[in-house]
Amino acid sequence: MLYFSVPLGKLVRRVSRLRGGGSALPGLVVEKIDPGFMQRTLSTLPLGVAVVSGTNGKTTTTKMVVELLESQGLKVFTNRTGSNFTRGVAAALLGDVDWRGRLDADIAVLELDEAHAVHFVNRVPPRYSLLLNVLRDQLDRFGEIDKTAQLLQHIASKTTGTVVLNREDPRVARIADTLDGPEVRYFGLDDSLLSTFPNDDDLRAGPGSPAPALPAKPHADVVLRRVGTDDADFEYDGATVTTGMKLRGVYNIFNAAAALVLARCIAGNGAAPTDHGGLLKALSEVAPAFGRGESLVVDGLPLDLVLVKNPSGFRLGLKSFPAGGYATMVAINDNYADGRDMSWLWDVEFDSLREGGVDQLSGSRAYDMALRLQYDEVAIGAVNPEIAPALAAFIQGAKDKPKRIFCTYTAMLAIRRELSKITTVEVVS
Amino acid sequence: MSPASEESKGTIRVLQLYPRDMNIYGDWGNALVLQQRLRWHGYTPELLEYNVGDDFPADVDLIVGGGGQDSGQLVIQDDLLSRESTLKELAEGGTPMLLICGLYQLFGRFFKTRTGSVIPGIGVLDVETHGTDERLIGNVTVSSPEFGDILGYENHSGQTTLGPGVQPLGTTSKGTGNNSSDGKEGARYRNIVASYLHGSLLPKNPAIADFLIRTAVERKYGSFTAGTPDDRYAVLAREHAARRPR
């Protein structure tokens, strides 16, 4: 089995690519004929496996960790296609191993969806895990937030080396109490930035409601102290460092603190001494993953795509990208990958769009969004559930303005497909 | 949307029950819709909150309560039992109430968990709920004799059975509703509308919102004169939601 599973899997991968097929099929084939393939291949890596999970920001954070480690001269294997399921990891491995099944890398950094990560870590206990946050997302899949926290706890409990936790997310920080094996490190936020990260428990705890008492915060290896328009301050090793940032959005930059903690842990265990200047330079150059605060150019003016998939993400998106001067479109789909339940739109406040209004609404639930905006007294230009004509009308109607589109996952894919006809859009294979 | 200068026809005090611990899946949407539609009908809304340990406000005209995770339900459970007589009195007296998901269950007689432990409810509604391993999730359409088609989204593993003291809110034509066997959704008792439906429920079902508002106003002021809310988007959102898969 061992001898032909890799060549066969690679062959299936080539054929399915030629046919323009999905990225997971070859993974499925190799998993069927050689169930030990993934575990065997990953176990050969000298620095082991690092898993990145959580509700928001997995893709961008994984990309940051990879680029930070590469700045240290490490060879990194990652599942950069966003196929964040076990099968997707196996498929990505097939692309990178040679015909004899050898993987030329020092470490694997893998983005894993919470539910699938549980199966993955049962088979491949990671040396490192980075757990970002637990937010209301796709609750029709996982049921409840506390359930999602349990999934992350399981990932942490299977980690053999170091677990990196978000100090500011109570459900994530609490995981530390349940661990006795791995070492725990934290990333954190300055108190002055906490208000830009309302967590789901604060959702309706308005002024006047007593806030639950906070236990003393543990020390964080890296703390995000300040976010500017194109730079940020990080504090670590007792000093505050200012660095330019290409990333936009406070939440992306907070995840940069997360990536920095993990990369420092891994680099610190590598053969060569950590190149701190190199880490910082790499951090300043990280660009967002596709659709995550990505800026394209249309008619010589920026068009920002902001992925929104849960109330916290949408609120952060609205806060991080002020509406002033921009034409705004919102596209809400309710396909399986977006989540079918529209309730989440009612947990976002849209007052910040009131002044300029929203020019265009689209997506299969465009009218749910219209209804939501009506109740927040936000003026609406046009509504068209069909994405292609809605996007064309939006671009046509705001020729002289920078543009911003808030969109759910599958709406973003459709918008990128349309945009690729008129501008350069990064190809994601 | 009446101009601010127009004279208010009266004030309606809307109480949100446990918004801090029971606010999952867009429950705020229901409170917001009541607040705005009161304005659009020409009345002044006064939005109040009741959380664990608070004094219970006097002169409440309308009550709205939502769902929570298991942890949220544990937090409010004792406090809710301590308010049993107050809430029963309001319910029996005809105060309109909207109870969604978790509070629908806890306004019933009891919730028996999968492991067999019994969480007592306050017994305002003649219903009982049994925890199951099956999670009922997806879009729902209910046909109601009183409100026409009701559109929403369910996400629950407790299954509720109605006793003779309450009527169902309606019969499901898509989705499951109260339980996986009898095809009924929600409960009606006096001026209480109880339902498993999120979505949020009231935005896409303005008929229910207006029933709660009209009842509250009539009880307080004797008669209700409706304004003219613009429901074009609600109509279109309903049409599109009805066509979506389960």
As a whole number of angstroms, the C-alpha radius of gyration of chain B is 17 Å
Main pleated-sheet profile of chain B: 6 strands, mixed
Mean pLDDT of chain A: 84
Query: How big a fraction of the residues of chain B is strand?
Result: 25-35%
**Poorly predicted ranges of chain B (pLDDT <50, ≥5 residues)?**
none
Supply the key terms.
A: about 425 residues, alpha/beta, Protein-Tyrosine Phosphatase, Chain A, 6-stranded mixed β-sheet, 16 helices, 15 strands, about 20% strand, B: about 250 residues
Give a description of the structure.
The complex is a heterodimer of chains A (429) and B (246). Chain A is an alpha/beta fold. Chain A folds into two domains: 197 residues, UDP-N-acetylmuramoyl-L-alanine:D-glutamate ligase (3-Layer(aba) Sandwich); 128 residues, Protein-Tyrosine Phosphatase, Chain A, CATH 3.90.190.20. In chain A, 38% of the residues lie in helices and 19% in strands. Chain A has 16 helices and 15 strands. Chain A has a nine-stranded mixed β-sheet, with helices on both faces. In chain A, strands 10-11-15-12-13-14 form a six-stranded mixed β-sheet, with helices on both faces. The longest helix of chain A is centred in the middle third of the chain and has 19 residues. Chain A is globular and about 60 Å long. Chain B is of the alpha/beta class. Chain B has a single domain, classed as Rossmann fold (3-Layer(aba) Sandwich), CATH 3.40.50. In chain B, 29% of the residues lie in helices and 30% in strands. In chain B, the strands form two sheets. Chain B has a six-stranded mixed β-sheet with strand order 2-1-3-4-12-11. In chain B, a hairpin with a 2-residue loop joins strand 11 and strand 12. In chain B, helix 1 packs across helix 6. Chain B is globular. The model of chain B has no long low-confidence stretch (mean pLDDT 94). Chains A and B meet through helix 14 of A and helix 1, strand 7, strand 8 and helix 7 of B.
Helices and strands, with pairings:
The complex is a heterodimer of chains A (429) and B (246).
Chain A: H1 2-18, H2 25-33, H3 37-42, E1 49-53, H4 58-70, E2 76-78, H5 86-96, E3 107-111, H6 114-123, E4 128-131, H7 139-142, H8 145-157, E5 162-166, H9 170-173, E6 183-189, H10 191-194, E7 222-227, E8 231-236, E9 239-244, H11 250-268, H12 276-285, E10 292-298, E11 301-307, H13 311-320, E12 327-331, E13 358-362, H14 366-375, E14 380-383, H15 387-397, E15 403-407, H16 409-419
Parallel strand pairs in A: 1-3, 1-4, 2-3, 4-5, 5-6, 6-7, 11-15, 12-13, 12-15, 13-14
Antiparallel strand pairs in A: 7-8, 8-9, 10-11
Helix pairs in contact in A: 1-2, 2-5, 4-11, 4-12, 6-8
Chain B: E1 11-17, H1 27-40, E2 44-50, E3 62-65, H2 70-82, H3 84-92, E4 97-100, H4 102-106, E5 110-112, E6 118-120, E7 127-144, E8 148-162, E9 170-174, E10 184-185, E11 187-189, E12 192-195, H5 201-204, H6 206-221, H7 232-242
Parallel strand pairs in B: 1-2, 1-3, 3-4, 4-12, 5-7
Antiparallel strand pairs in B: 5-6, 7-8, 7-9, 9-10, 11-12
Helix pairs in contact in B: 1-6
